[in-house]
């Protein structure tokens, strides 16, 4: 590992950057990534490439009838489970071809012998790119994770942008609406009467264009020159986008959704809740030849499973 200290212009003098100034360039790399993420998540109607997640709820059992007496609870169907699968999150990766390292591409530093030398690509990885990936893949959701994703239970989230652009949830946690069932409507109401408890939305974290000191590099005339900011930032963006997609050093960036897995969780857990009851047995007398019975969903809410969006460095 070769972490270098870049050189900068200090009122006409060549000076090594402080660790704070190096960190400011790392923050700028994160911002550059946020402008054009190379590992992107989108919200689709169905068929997303991330794992599907299931919402389960109870519906009423089928009603029973008799011409002589109410069907017993033992003979009526128990409330049944309804499962709805959501696969609305799709992952895509960009094809990135960054500027090649010519030996003079990168900032310069002082060697142990006091000479000025251009940083190698490995130096750039160790000093800037890998620390930026470490920030991007952490479990936090600040501007230092800009361009990556998080989950929230609201379609508006401070410091982030809702990905679908139309407040489309990626998951709906539903439960049976117990108020929709009554003994007086046995045989005429729908078996499945869901109500949405919580909606979950995918957000992309917004970036912040941070100030930083522009380093020196060696120009074509073998002179020290400061980068112009546009060229330097373009170089940084190309290489952080390439690293996130194609790193051979264990610094690629990926996502998964599931109950368990590797990586750092992002934002709210996605809870699938159900009613815990074993059935509310009810009867309805229609006439002397029509006795009805049915079991409705009942009980208290319980979490059946919790899914998480995870960001992975691999």
Can you describe what's shown?
The structure is a single chain. This protein is an alpha+beta fold and 314 residues long. It has one domain (7-313). It has 3 helices and 21 strands. It has helices at residues 19-35, 121-136, 229-246; strands spanning 7-10, 13-16, 39-43, 53-59, 64-66, 80-86, 89-93, 108-110, 116-118, 149-152, 160-162, 171-176, 194-205, 216-218, 224-226, 253-258, 264-265, 270-275, 280-287, 290-296, 301-313. Strands 10, 11, 12 and 13 form a 4-stranded antiparallel β-sheet that branches. α1 packs across α2 (121-136) and α1 (19-35) packs across α3. The chain is rod-shaped and about 105 Å long.
Concise description?
The chain is of the alpha+beta class. The protein has helices spanning 19-35, 121-136, 229-246; strands at 7-10, 13-16, 39-43, 53-59, 64-66, 80-86, 89-93, 108-110, 116-118, 149-152, 160-162, 171-176, 194-205, 216-218, 224-226, 253-258, 264-265, 270-275, 280-287, 290-296, 301-313. Helix 1 (19-35) crosses helix 2 and helix 1 crosses helix 3.
Write the layout of secondary structure elements.
Elements: E1 7-10, E2 13-16, H1 19-35, E3 39-43, E4 53-59, E5 64-66, E6 80-86, E7 89-93, E8 108-110, E9 116-118, H2 121-136, E10 149-152, E11 160-162, E12 171-176, E13 194-205, E14 216-218, E15 224-226, H3 229-246, E16 253-258, E17 264-265, E18 270-275, E19 280-287, E20 290-296, E21 301-313
Antiparallel strand pairs: 1-2, 3-7, 4-6, 5-20, 8-9, 10-13, 11-13, 12-13, 14-15, 16-21, 17-21, 18-21, 19-20
């Amino acid at each position: 590992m070769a972490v270098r200290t870049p050189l900068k212009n200090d009122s006409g003098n060549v000076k090594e950057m402080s660790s704070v100034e190096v960190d400011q360039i790392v923050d700028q790399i994160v911002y550059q990534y946020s402008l054009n993420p190379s590992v992107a998540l989108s919200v689709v109607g169905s068929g997303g490439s991330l794992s599907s997640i299931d919402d389960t709820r109870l519906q009423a059992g089928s009603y029973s009838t008799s011409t002589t007496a109410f069907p017993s609870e033992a003979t009526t169907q128990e409330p049944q489970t309804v499962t709805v699968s959501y696969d609305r999150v799709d992952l895509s990766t960009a094809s990135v071809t960054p500027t090649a390292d010519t030996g003079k591409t990168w900032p310069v530093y002082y060697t142990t012998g006091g000479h000025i030398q251009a940083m190698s690509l490995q130096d750039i990885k160790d000093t800037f790119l890998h620390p930026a990936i470490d920030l991007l893949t952490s479990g936090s959701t600040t501007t230092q994770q800009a361009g990556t994703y998080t989950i929230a239970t609201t379609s508006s989230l401070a410091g982030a942008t809702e990905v679908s652009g139309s407040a489309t949830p990626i998951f709906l946690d539903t439960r049976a609406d117990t108020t929709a069932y009554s003994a007086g409507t046995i045989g005429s109401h729908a078996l499945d009467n869901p109500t949405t408890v919580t909606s979950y939305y995918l957000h992309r974290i917004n970036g912040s264009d941070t100030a930083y000191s522009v380093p020196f590099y060696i120009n074509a005339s073998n002179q020290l020159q400061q980068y112009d900011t546009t060229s330097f930032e373009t170089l940084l963006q190309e290489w952080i986008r390439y690293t996130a997609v194609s790193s051979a050093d264990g610094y690629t960036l990926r996502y998964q959704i599931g109950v368990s897995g590797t990586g750092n969780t992002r934002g709210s857990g996605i809870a699938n809740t159900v009613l815990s009851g074993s059935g509310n047995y009810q009867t309805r007398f229609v006439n002397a030849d029509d006795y009805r019975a049915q079991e409705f969903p009942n009980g208290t809410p319980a979490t059946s499973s919790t899914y998480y969006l995870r960001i992975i460095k691999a």
